[in-house]
Amino acid sequence: MYSDTHFHFRHIVRDRGLDGTALLHELVARNTAFALDIGTEADDLIERHNFVTEAIDLLDAGEQSKALKMVRFAAGIWPSPEEIRERQERVKLLADKIAHFEKSGNRVIAIGECGLDHHWNPSGADNRSKEDFDSSMLLGERELFEMQLVLAKNLELPVVIHSREAFEDTLDILKNIGYNRGIIHCFSYGIDEARAFLDLGWHIAFGGAVTYAKKTKMDAMKELLRFVPDDRLLLETDAPYLAPVPLRGQTNTPVFIEHVYNFIAETRGINPVALSELVDKNISFLFEL
Question: Judging by beta carbons within 10 Å of its beta carbon (0-12, 13-18, 19+), is residue 92 exposed, middle or buried?
């Protein structure tokens, strides 16, 4: 119950110091059906997998099989300036890592997260400054995204897209490449933008940020949450980031996603359990599980 289509296990454990085994134990105890560990770097897949398997190894035998079935892996390159500058080599490395991972008997079920991010804040976690958005960097960011869409198409995998303050460019790239299968993650636009992505065939994922929209924007947020069709709706945490109300400010984990389900279920006028079943059905369809 209460699947999570986007979280970063390594960041939760390594960077925030939480107990990964305790987290997986709690998810198994809650009968969580699906939890997708997301990539951000060309060469992070094996390390991320190791963090998860090391935590699973400390579970009871009965829990281990459930955890192995529950946690799945995506692999992709977030548009950091470093990755953009070396984009051709990094996408080749990403493809090689995926091939090696699957030869060892594992499976990548999505490419991502990848996309465009035009937000800058030098004091933020990503340390992006205005100078990072010159013409060459913007072109490189676009090419990095396009190459990963082509990789996903070649591998016949869905894509997890990060799009922040970059709607028009994101949409333009999707139309140019012509591969429209996957998720617009942590959706931060309005109904008109949602309609454009939905018309192309994309799923829309919402996380904890929907629970703390400003009062002046809450009505519009709820209208958006009701607008997305049942068969295109997904939920996520983006843990360890964006913990939902009433836990805002804490290190987020997939356990906290229950609050997102409760909020969206109330907004859409359905039971949280029914919403969970709906989301799991969408997950099974999108990822061919």
Answer: middle
Residue from 12, 6, 37 nearest 187 by CA: 6
Question: Is the omega angle on the peptide bond into residue 113 within 30 degrees of 0, that is, cis?
Answer: yes
DSSP 73: E
Helices (H) and strands (E) in the chain — how many of each?
Answer: 12, 8
Distance separating alpha carbons of residues 204 and 225, to the nearest angstrom: 10
pLDDT per position as a tens digit, 240-272: 999 999 999 999 999 999 999 999 999 999 999
- Residue closest to 254 by CA, chosen among 16, 15, 37: 37
To the question of pTM greater than 0.70 for the whole model, the response is: yes
Tokens describing residue 28: 């198994």
Those residues with Cβ within 8 angstroms of residue 87's Cβ, 6 or more apart along the chain or in another chain: 77, 140, 143, 144, 147
